[in-house]
Amino acid sequence: MNIYGLAVLALSFLVGQWMGEFLGSLININANVGGVGFAMIILMFLKEWLVKNSLMSFEMEAGIDFWNKLYIPVVIAMAASLNVKSALTSGTLAIAAGLLPVLVSFWVFPLILKKFKPKSDGDSL
After folding, report:
1. Which of 3, 35, 47, 101 has its CA 20 to 30 A from that of 91?
2. Which domain, by its residues, includes 32?
């Protein structure tokens, strides 16, 4: 079922990456500028076009939704790894700016969990 949407997502990704590389070369930057954003916009338009022309089967829609949900976390993880690499080469201020919110989150999150306990539905195991 999930393979049906993979071709649509791959086409969107490849065209989006090409557009990002082209935009980067247009403004004389040796980088991909907005390729992921272009890919997501192309995917949305392509999906709507397929629905409008009654070419979208249930399996294809489920496949696109599956890969679409998987695509965004992967891109965020890739961007985060680049940010960590930049922070490590930039110096101690960048590392402290990233480390401080993480440590505060580890301290605050347990306090929030203690304050807001989920209601029981009567099923106890």
Report:
1. 35
2. 1-71
